Amino acid sequence: MMEERGLVGLMLTLKEREIKRVVKAGYARIAKQATSEYASRCCLGEADAQEEMSKRMGYTDEEIQAAPPESNLGLGCGNPVALASISEGEIVLDMGAGAGFDCFLASSRVGASGKVIGVDITSEMVEKARVNCRNGGYTNIDFRQGDLENMPVADEYVDVVISNCVINLIPNKRLAFREAFRVMKPGGRLAVSDVVLLKELPQFVKNCTEAYISCLSGAIMKEDYIDIIKSVGFRDVRLVAESRFPVESLIFESSGCSACGDPEITPEQEKEIRDSVLSIKVTAVKP
Q1: DSSP assignment, residue 41?
Q2: Among 100, 113, 231, 268, which is 20 to 30 Å from 262 by CA?
Q3: What own/partner pairs with CB < 8 Å and gap ≥ 24 does 53-60 have?
Q4: Pairing of the two strands 184-197 and 277-285
Q5: Is the dihedral of CA 135, 136, 141, 145 positive or negative?
Q6: The whole model's pTM is what?
Q7: Whose CA is closest to 22, among 218, 209, 166, 250?
């Protein structure tokens, strides 16, 4: 029995490693392409489409204009900065910071007396965020490369943890939320935007490792997601809002990474996926 459990644990570990490898490779590709693609969008007059996508996620015109344009990769599913009600002087951690968009928005809210830490597993994303930071003259942001299941952040150090459509990418979501709980001061706040499921995804999507990049395969049931947050110790867990998510962009585009190698999806299959996916906003407090 012990040997059987050990084998199962090894298989899960190998699967998690493969998922992380695919996710890192996919987002490294997105980071490398982002600069040239942004320039192309501007030349073709398509930058407005990117802004419209951000508005659909809940960002205002002022917020979109305030951050470095190349930090907005359109990869989120909400606006966790607004959700967190960040105050001046606070220390904010962004789990899965990407090119830094939400970190730059949080920077102005915490002011010179506060600090923003952005953690991302992909070295190319961290480097892009650092370049954006230098070019924008930000002095209160620290971008760090690290695994969200083992973050390079001290215990009970931050006031607020935010995350934007990232936890769904992590194989061990319980460990990621446990890390958020660990680094947060007592009384600290969690504000997360993410993608969850209302019902199980079709098997052809669930079996597709590449679909992790598009935030599909890694999503779990809404009730399970909320239960995990509660189980690691958070209190006053609130589902603030939920809405249908435009999964067609994930299926066919995914910011340059087509899920499952751009499969031939029938209208019926597309509807089945669309009916399964939900975008949620969740807040919680560490006692």
Answers
A1: H
A2: 100
A3: 53/249, 56/246, 57/193, 58/82
A4: antiparallel
A5: negative
A6: 0.83
A7: 209
Q: Is the pLDDT of residue 140 over 80?
A: yes
Higher pLDDT, 154 or 45: 154
pLDDT over threshold 50, residue 40: no
- The first and second tokens of residue 8, run together, are 């199962």
Cα 137 to the center of its chain, rounded Å: 24
**Cα distances (angstroms) measured from residue 259 to each of 53, 124, 156, 211, 253:** 19, 21, 38, 4, 8
Residue 1's SS3 state is: coil
> Which of 117 and 277 is assigned the larger pLDDT?
117
Distance from the Cα of residue 80 to its chain's centroid: 10
Q: How far apart are CA 213 and CA 261, in angstroms?
A: 11
> Cα–Cα distance between 241 and 136 in angstroms, integer?
32
DSSP-based three-state secondary structure for 13:
helix
Q: Where are the beta strands (DSSP E) in 177-276?
A: 184-197, 235-244
- Residue whose C-alpha is closest to residue 59's, from 84, 79, 80: 79
When computed from its CA atoms, the radius of gyration of the chain, rounded to whole angstroms, is 18
Which of 111, 70, 112, 76 has the alpha carbon at shortest distance from 94?
A: 76
Sheet strands side by side (includes 235-244): 141-145, 115-120, 91-95, 158-164, 184-197, 277-285, 235-244
Amino acid code (one letter) for 74: G
Q: How many residues are there in the chain?
A: 287
Tokens of residue 191, six digits: 């504000």
How far, in Å, CA of 168 to CA of 50, rounded? Answer: 22
For 131, half-sphere exposure in the C-beta direction (CA atoms, 13 angstrom radius) is 15
**Residues contacting 107, CB < 8 A, separation 6+:** 116, 138, 140, 141
Q: Which of 226, 222, 96 is nearest to 165 (CA)?
A: 96
